[in-house]
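Here is one chain, start to finish.
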Amino acid sequence: MKFNITGFTHKGTEREMNQDRILIQNSIYESGTHNLLNEDYCFCFIADGIGGGPSGEKAAHYILEQINTKLIRSVNYDDDSLNEILNSINIDLFNEGRLNLDYFGSGSTLVGMMINESYFKIINAGDSQLWLFRNNIMTKLTEDQVLNSQQENSPITSYFGGKNQNLKLDFDTILRNIKVNDLLILTSDGLLKSLTIKQIKSILSNTKSLIDKTEFILHKALQSSAEDNVSCIFIEVINES
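Its structure:
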């Protein structure tokens, strides 16, 4: 299998700063829309800096830099190995905050997808999400790690950084295989504050190219007054070329 990958990150219409960061393959972005075609593997993450705390964007960028350095694309990590590496990144971030009090307490959520041949792994901490669009059905593959999932803006219970190292990684998923024509959607929580699942599904169901769909989703989110930062990565599974 090969992959078309398109992603964007935007500060939205209300915030002065974008505290989201996205990692697509080897590159970290703090703004703009980015498109790759016919990729041999998938290595994609979104880090959403926690608002209300200091320098959430610094935490988000730091986490993705470390992931980009410490995780090897060709390795099929088991949960224990991933847990060890990602927890070491969390400890390093916490210690950075102790050395620089301007950053002390900064934190970030994380959601990611690693696919290499027959291996795939989902990584989640916080309330950013991963969805599967298959046969015109949207299925949520991650569970929000919040105090009360029924309450809007409920406090996040797992994240990188912070003052208490509140990190509990989740690798569980109902997804057992990945198929040609699947579309995997990584998103910060800002998108679903602006658009409904029904609206997103309607856009994804049309016959336009992935980049066109992606750009239209961003356009509609901004048109709907995106109060939060908004970031998405769309991973389209295609046939081998």
